Amino acid sequence: MRFFLTSMLLSLVMTAYADNYKIESLKTSTIVIGGKTCRVGDVFSDKSAIVWGSNTAFVARNMRTKKKHRFCSSDFRRSNAKSIEDYYLKTNRLSTREYSDYDLAQELSRTHYLVDTLRIRIGDPVRRNFRYEAAYANKGGTHVVKIPQESDFLVFTRSLFEEPDRAHAAQTLLLTIYRTPEDDQKRETLTDQMIIEMVEW
After folding, report:
1. Which end of the chain has less neighbouring CB within 10 Å, N or C?
2. Model's pTM, two decimal places?
3. Which of 154, 159, 158, 190 is nearest to 175 (CA)?
4. Rounded distance, CA 104 to CA 117, Å?
5. Which residues contact 82 (CB under 8 A, 6 or more apart)?
């Protein structure tokens, strides 16, 4: 009943108006949105259906709020959503009008240099309870570690990734960062492009 009422409220709020988005970067050369082939610089409505290719993602600016947001094929397929509006309705969020994890995803999706401790701001104004994990390949396969949190920061430490036979050695790690609500097991991928360069000391 609670889920139904929440969904109804979100539907009423979001169908009252539509937001337009301008594509600022695109992982592929084109993407079909609203039946049209779109490229960087094109504008589309959040009600327009998106045809996702495999492993596709793009960054778009909300023309009303002027904020940038990142969208990817895996998130949309997981929720079986057709459009941006549909995605936020099905995931029970008030769309990018209220909250976006784009800044965190963007910050994570680059190269970071780690000597001892690295703190990355989460930037969630709602202060929701999430568990964050990092997955990376090692000689035994894929290793997953829970990322500690301090207030509004994710804390990456050298010891989080070190192995006994590689202590204090310079290395490069490609991380996939996952986020899971503490009261739910529906894990989402924030980025699979975080690079950590461990600086030798």
Report:
1. N
2. 0.49
3. 190
4. 18
5. 49, 50, 76
